[in-house]
Amino acid sequence: MGRSVLLVEDEMMIAWDIEQTLTHAGMRVLGPASSVSRALRLIEGEVPDAAILDLNLRGELVTPVARRLRELEVPFVLATAYNHLRSGELEFDGVENLGKPVASERCVAVLGEMLA
Question: Positions modified as 4-aspartylphosphate (predicted)?
C-alpha cells in the first residue's frame, strides 16, 4: 500500500467519498476520525505522511490536530466549506483549503504534490 493519509472528517458520507478517492489513488487512509480526540489517538499510534482536516468537527475546531501535525512536520490540507479562518489561527497559515465538496482530482493532485 502507498503513503498514509490521516483523514479527519465528521460527515460520514464525505469521509467515505474522500477515503474512496485516496484508496483508488493508492494511498492508505488512517481513520476517518470524526473527533479531535480520535485523530490525536491515531497520530500517536502512527505518524501519517500527510493529512486532510475538516476545520469544524461538530462544533469542535481541529486546531489541536493541526498543531500536533505541525510539531511532527506532517503536511496537511483543509477540506472545509469555510471561506476564511479566524485571525490568530497560526496553525492554518499557508494551508490550502480543498473546499467542499472535495473534487477528487484536485484532492489527489494536491496530496501528490505534498508527498512528492
Answer: 54
Task: Give the rounded distance of the alpha carbon of 109 from its chain centre.
Answer: 14
Length of the chain measured in residues: 116
The pairing of beta strand 28-33 with beta strand 56-57: unpaired
Instruction: Tell me if the domain spanning 4-115 has CATH number 3.40.50.720.
Output: no
Structural domain spans, the chain: 4-115
Q: Exposed, middle or buried by CB within 10 Å (0-12, 13-18, 19+), for 43?
A: buried
User: What does the alpha-carbon distance between residue 93 and residue 20 come to, in Å, rounded to a whole number?
Assistant: 28
Q: Could you tell me the three cell numbers for 62?
A: 481541529
Counting as low any pLDDT under 50, the low residues of the chain are 87
